């Protein structure tokens, strides 16, 4: 077992984690055409929550996940009613939302810096490394993959097995037609915001371990990575996001193994290649050419 | 001025129509400045009609003062500034941001393409100038031109990105700028590891003078775009690309030209910054905050107005100098909140307040515009807005 196999398997684990990171963003963008540039910062706040849970409450950092979900749901609800009613009146919702959520991202980063400081915040590792096929993988990577898979399946079940999920898919396909057919667009949108933010907050606790800690500017990098992942897959398709995450994880992991100094460039080059060569993503039906 | 001609023998098409000359009951036609970020198609057509109606009746000097005022005010502002605050490196940086904000104005204000990776073009200009000085020992002016040319060439390479819509364009330019950063930071011929170190090619006074000239020219360019047939084509593309193409606008050429103008301004700004700073790393050159400040300054002042972005840069960069240098995170909080408030409550920026005040108190002393025409009820999936966007996916 050599470097290649190690890179491959850890690429899969990282890929599942990045699919988890991207999935909430995908829902928000797919449903409301809202470009949530604060997505990464919401994840970072999830990470800070894990830090607080471990250091102040001493109950183990993974408890942050069940705690972060209701907090994310509430914050998503508030975020919807603060931003969307006015945002929808603008002529170009997509670009306007990009600027607006960029502002929110800056506010969150500033608050994070003021409260937690500019330095990296870290937690001790979860436990001893796990041995798979004769090689050591960090326990946190295995745990993250093990949590990400059911989370992705849960979202899949919501979209394809519930009535609101069906309506959500209708809104993703065509908002006006969905409205005309009696779909409860506002309810779908509020739910998408709540689930999207909750997923981001939950992913944050895992990010704490997968990224070796968080700092206030981790969020921007995570946002770009999340966008890469959901654009590689396709909008509104959780399966696409999973594949996008895996593809990204594998590429990043192999680059890390063989061309270390170029690792940071991977998400950007992938993003450019996908938008230029196959703008509708790997699983997309609709073109997004202007 | 209007070299492209407007094709129907009228003097020109000023986008502004004076409310007094019109009897139309539609308050939107009276609006001297745009208050929303885009023109609905029907509105644009009415404005074209209104513009030509007015052009026949209005004295020409009025439109010429409207064109000269922004240019003269900008020039005066930057000429007086050194007397008031004797810190040329601060003022030069302010001028550089004003150039960048006007560059964002050209591409975002008139076409709706948000260049999130604008710093890539700024960095291309900086490294173009710096490498020309290091390898060929060119003079300062030649280096500036070189920076502008490099930036323009890179924007041509990136022009296929203009096929992308909305957020995809914004994110793709961001990705392009970061790719450029990794190349510059990792290669040895760009002095990626050692950092750039330049000899003094221009004096501090010379750099400031050149910066002021470029700011003034950039304001003049925006005035030209605002009042010309070219600008009208750009806005037609923004509001409905298909209709614009059917009306005879060469969509690809027009938007590429706007992108090229914007990139050249960014390249000049970057080259000026490189010559001024003289020692820098790729990390500080391709810093995303450059893009962000340029966009926020332009939005704060108001895109599509000629003076707005300059005022945005002057006001906000002064604020940054005042609180941002010692407490960067507090400044970050302030401008983050500022963006949120601007987008939600004042999408037209400062200049829209000026425009609103003017039509409220000058054109309409009796406040006929008490109810604004653009107020809409918040229904889920506001179909009017969606229809106004118009472009089929």
What does this entry look like structurally?
The complex is a heterodimer of chains A (290) and B (393). Chain A is mainly alpha-helical and 290 residues long. Helix content of chain A is 72%, strand content 2%. Chain A contains eleven helices and two strands; from the N terminus they run ααααββααααααα. In chain A, strands 1-2 form a two-stranded antiparallel ribbon. In chain A, α2 packs parallel to α4 and α5 crosses α6 (163-173). The longest helix of chain A has 30 residues, at 3-32. Chain A is globular. The termini of chain A are far apart. The relative contact order of chain A is 0.21. The mean pLDDT of chain A is 82. Chain B is mainly α and 393 residues long. Helix content of chain B is 69%, strand content 1%. Chain B has helices at 27-30, 41-57, 60-84, 88-111, 118-136, 140-158, 166-186, 204-227, 229-239, 241-246, 251-277, 282-285, 288-301, 308-324, 328-345, 350-363, 383-389; strands at residues 196-197, 279-280. A two-stranded antiparallel sheet of chain B has the order 1-2. In chain B, α6 runs antiparallel to α11 (251-277). The longest helix of chain B has 27 residues, at 251-277. Residues 1-41, 49-57 and 364-393 of chain B have low confidence and may be disordered. The chains are: A mainly alpha (290), B mainly alpha (393). The interface between A and B is large, with 63 and 63 residues.
């Amino acid at each position: 077992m050599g470097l290649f196999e190690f890179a491959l398997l850890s690429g899969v684990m990282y890929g599942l984690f990045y699919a988890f990171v991207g999935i909430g963003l995908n829902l928000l963008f797919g449903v409301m055409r809202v470009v949530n540039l604060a997505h990464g910062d919401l994840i970072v706040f999830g990470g800070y929550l894990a830090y607080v849970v471990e250091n102040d409450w001493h109950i183990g950092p993974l408890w942050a996940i069940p705690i972060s979900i209701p907090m994310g749901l509430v914050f998503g609800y508030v975020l919807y009613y603060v931003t969307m009613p006015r945002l929808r009146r603008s002529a170009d919702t997509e670009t306007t939302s990009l600027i607006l959520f960029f502002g929110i991202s800056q506010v969150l980063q500033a608050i994070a810096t003021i409260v937690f400081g500019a330095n990296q915040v870290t937690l001790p590792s979860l436990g001893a490394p796990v041995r798979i096929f004769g090689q050591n993988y960090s326990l946190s990577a295995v745990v993250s993959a093990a949590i990400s898979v059911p989370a992705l399946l849960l979202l899949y079940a919501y979209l394809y097995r519930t009535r609101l999920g069906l309506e959500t898919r209708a809104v993703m396909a065509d908002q006006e037609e969905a409205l005309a057919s009696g779909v409860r667009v506002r309810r779908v949108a509020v739910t998408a915001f709540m689930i999207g933010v909750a997923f981001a907050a939950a992913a944050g606790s895992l990010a704490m371990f997968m990224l070796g800690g968080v700092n206030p500017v981790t969020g921007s990098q995570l946002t770009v990575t999340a966008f890469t992942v959901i654009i590689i897959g396709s909008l509104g398709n959780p399966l696409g996001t999973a594949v996008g995450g895996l593809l990204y994880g594998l590429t990043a992991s192999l680059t890390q193994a063989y061309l270390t100094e170029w690792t940071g460039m991977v998400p950007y080059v992938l993003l450019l290649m996908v938008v230029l060569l196959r703008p509708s993503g790997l699983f997309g039906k609709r073109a997004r050419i202007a | 001025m209007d070299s492209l001609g407007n094709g129907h023998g009228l003097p020109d098409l000023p986008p502004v129509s004076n409310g007094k000359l019109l009897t139309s009951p539609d308050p939107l036609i009276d609006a001297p400045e745009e208050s929303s970020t885009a023109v609905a198609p029907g509105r644009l057509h009415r404005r074209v009609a209104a513009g030509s109606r007015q052009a026949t009746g209005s004295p020409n000097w009025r439109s010429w003062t409207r064109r000269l005022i922004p240019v003269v005010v900008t020039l005066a502002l930057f000429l007086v500034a050194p007397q008031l605050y004797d810190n040329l490196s601060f003022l030069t940086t302010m001028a550089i941001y004003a150039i960048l904000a006007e560059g964002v104005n050209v591409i975002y204000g008139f076409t709706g393409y948000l260049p999130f990776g604008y710093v890539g073009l700024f960095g291309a200009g900086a490294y173009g100038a710096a490498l020309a000085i290091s390898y060929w020992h060119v003079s300062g002016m030649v280096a500036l031109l070189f920076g502008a040319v490099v930036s323009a060439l890179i924007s041509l390479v990136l022009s296929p990105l203009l096929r992308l819509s909305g957020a995809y364009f914004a994110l793709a330019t961001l990705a392009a700028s970061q790719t450029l950063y990794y190349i510059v930071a990792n290669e040895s011929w760009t002095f990626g590891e050692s950092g750039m170190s330049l000899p003094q090619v221009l004096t501090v006074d010379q750099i400031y003078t050149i910066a002021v000239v470029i700011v003034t020219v950039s304001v003049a360019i925006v005035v030209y775009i605002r009042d010309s047939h070219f600008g009208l084509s750009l806005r037609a593309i923004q509001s409905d690309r298909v209709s614009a193409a059917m009306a005879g606008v060469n969509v690809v050429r027009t938007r590429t030209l706007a992108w090229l103008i914007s990139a050249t301004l960014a390249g000049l700004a970057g080259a000026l910054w490189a010559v001024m700073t003289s020692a820098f790393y790729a990390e500080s050159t391709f810093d995303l905050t450059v893009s962000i400040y340029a966009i926020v300054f332009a939005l704060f002042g108001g895109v599509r107005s000629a003076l707005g972005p300059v005022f945005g840069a002057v006001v906000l960069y002064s604020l940054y100098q005042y609180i941002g240098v010692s407490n960067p995170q507090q400044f970050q909080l302030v401008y983050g909140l500022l963006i949120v408030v601007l987008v939600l409550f004042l999408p037209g920026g400062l200049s829209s307040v000026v425009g609103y005040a003017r039509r409220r108190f000058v054109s309409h002393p009796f406040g006929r515009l008490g109810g604004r025409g653009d107020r809409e009820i918040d229904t889920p999936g506001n179909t009017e807005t969606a229809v106004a966007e118009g472009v089929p996916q």
